[in-house]
Specification:
Elements lengths: L1 H28 L24 H27 L12 H30 L6 H4 L4 H27 L4 H5 L1 H10 L9 E5 L2 E4 H39 L3 H29 L3 H24 L9 H31 L2 H4 L2 H21 L4
Antiparallel strand pairs: 1-2
Length: about 375
């Protein structure tokens, strides 16, 4: 029940974010301007420019909802159902390379997409000079978000280790303990001693605690990572849904499909390693797959009252993007890349480690190239 309650809390946070990012701009769009002095001409309306066709934009947005939903589900479900393919199981080299590629995509998403969008919003000419142009709010909020993510990471580990480590999570590791005992049947007089290599003695209880702690770590990482993805996915979807510019939407659809596919693979790998039950897996897959299409649908419904150039909308979206950027950058560097590259599997295999770095660069490079169109 604790996992389900966490998902309910995520839903509540999701609803609060939507409310904060949608309701205030509607009043600004209606003409209730609270800033002193006349705003610049480009701030008076949401979508400007020669390429503006509401009918064509609506068709593209409907295509975007369907295509992004399908690619999101494919991306997040591929690692989860990879148990049927021996080469894609978590202990295989190919899984490590695919996860490294997806981690590079997530890292580039934070640095090359979400953070620049936050800069654009909080440095906009539609905002007053003081304080938005005199202080780097984007990097400040991203820094605080990374620290807050570390706190959530740390406190969640402490809480679950205290309440769950001795109960449910250890059960997942009992089969590992049994395998170790079967492989080391000699020396029946010392039941806790399972394997001896030189002067190193591996204790089955210690190994069980270590495996349970690692499993707990995977679960916390999967939940925190999905929370960050949900936040920026809603913002992206809302912006696309409110736009009436086909020239902007058309390349954005392809870029978001690429983004959702490989970002989903990274999240799906974390969900697979967390060894959740089928019910929790289904909830996490649903949240990841539905957030961007839901944001687009919400933007379509609010396109007549939502002004993406209003001061309130710029501030809210800019701060949310900065929070999401800090969270994604922390998760990609600390919980995904550093955890894998400093682990025993890659540390003991220089060739695999080199190929993993190549995969990270390819993922980050491909996602960075998408910044040219989105």
């Amino acid at each position: 029940m604790s996992k389900i309650s966490i998902k309910i809390l995520v839903t509540i946070c999701f609803s609060i974010i939507i409310t904060l990012s949608v309701l205030p701009p509607s009043s600004a769009a209606a003409g209730e301007t609270k800033t002193t002095g006349p705003p610049p001409p480009q701030c008076s309306s949401g979508t400007t420019g020669e390429c503006r066709d509401k009918t064509a934009a609506l068709k593209l947005k409907i295509v975007a909802i369907a295509s992004i939903l399908v690619t999101s589900m494919i991306g997040v479900c591929l690692p989860i159902f990879s148990k049927a393919v021996p080469a894609l199981q978590p202990d295989k080299d190919l899984f490590v390379l695919v996860k490294a590629f997806a981690s590079g995509v997530i890292l580039a998403t934070g640095y090359m997409h979400v953070m620049p969008d936050s800069f654009d919003c909080l440095r906009s000419e539609c905002l007053p000079e003081d304080p938005w142009h005199k202080f780097p709010f984007t990097t400040f909020v991203a820094m605080l978000s990374a620290i807050l993510t570390l706190m959530v990471d740390s406190y969640a580990m402490s809480y679950y280790r205290k309440h769950n480590l001795g109960r449910g999570i250890k059960k997942c590791c009992s089969n590992v303990e049994n395998e170790i005992k079967l492989e080391s049947q000699p020396q029946p007089q010392t039941q806790t001693q399972t394997q001896t290599e030189g002067n190193i003695i591996i204790n089955s209880d210690d190994y069980k605690d270590s495996a349970a702690s690692q499993l707990l770590r995977y679960r916390v990482v999967a939940q925190v990572l999905e929370l960050g993805i949900v936040v920026h996915s809603v913002v992206i979807g809302l912006s696309m849904g409110a736009s009436d510019n086909p020239c902007t939407i058309r390349p954005l659809v392809a870029a978001l499909c690429f983004h959702q596919l490989f970002e989903g693979m990274g999240l799906g790998g974390c969900i697979l390693q967390a060894e959740y039950g089928s019910k929790v897996k289904a909830i996490m897959v649903f949240f990841f797959s539905a957030t961007t299409p839901f944001g687009i649908a919400l933007g379509i419904g609010l396109s007549n009252v939502y002004s993406d150039n209003s001061p309130t909308a710029l501030i809210v979206v800019g701060l949310l993007n900065a929070c999401s950027a800090g969270l994604l950058n922390y998760m990609a560097l600390v919980d995904l890349l550093a955890s894998d590259f400093m682990g025993t599997k890659l540390q003991n295999n220089i060739k695999l480690q080199t190929w993993a770095y190549v995969a990270v660069l390819l993922g980050a490079g491909g996602m960075s190239l998408m910044a040219k169109w989105a």
